[in-house]
Amino acid sequence: MVRFFGTGLLLGALLVAFVAGAVGALPQALLPAPVRHTLFALVAVPVLVRELGLVRFPVPENARLVPQDVQHLRRWGALQFGFEMGTGMRTYSPSALPHLVLAAVLLVVPLPAAFAPAVGFALGRLAMPVLSNAWSDDGSWTAAWARAERVVRPVLALTCVGSLAVAILVP
Amino acid sequence: MAIRVVLHPVPAAVAFVLAALGAGALGGLALLLVAGAAAGFANSGST
Hints:
The complex is a heterodimer.
Chain A: H1 2-30, H2 33-51, H3 74-87, H4 97-107, H5 111-133, H6 140-169
Helix pairs in contact in A: 1-3, 1-4, 1-5, 2-4, 2-6, 4-6
Chain B: H1 2-6, H2 9-26, H3 28-42
């Protein structure tokens, strides 16, 4: 079942990367690099500050839960569920980092390279259920995540922003 | 219990940092992959 979920994640993320990369080709063709880098920084700094917990502001998200009937569709349900999660647009978004990666694809990452963060997004999104499956189904993972969240979220944000910045600025 | 120490959110986050440091030597595509992975993990919430 994890294979189907993972495949769905990958397909969903690749689709978003393709569409965003195609749309992003226009600003990337029309705007000079310094302007695009500045626009990206104007997104990255607030996102980083938000993820560090210094400010609070809402980010665009699909504020709805995944319907219960998905789990009754077995393999196709897992594939569909993964696909929708892979797009990052199916349900709540607890982090603004996907928005930042999307902004990077729109503004500074050319289309062929845009598939790299998409594959990474699918792998990262898959890691959480894989890790949580190693814990007993008694809510202990959720409790561990809640305790660790104040440390983990800033670390992930610095990792994401730092990686993007180096990838964009260093040829 | 030992497995929970390894498969815990904090070591996972540290693994992303180490992956980013390693990706720096590999180039831009590897860094973009790690950035996406960090975003995907952060976007998971607790499940």
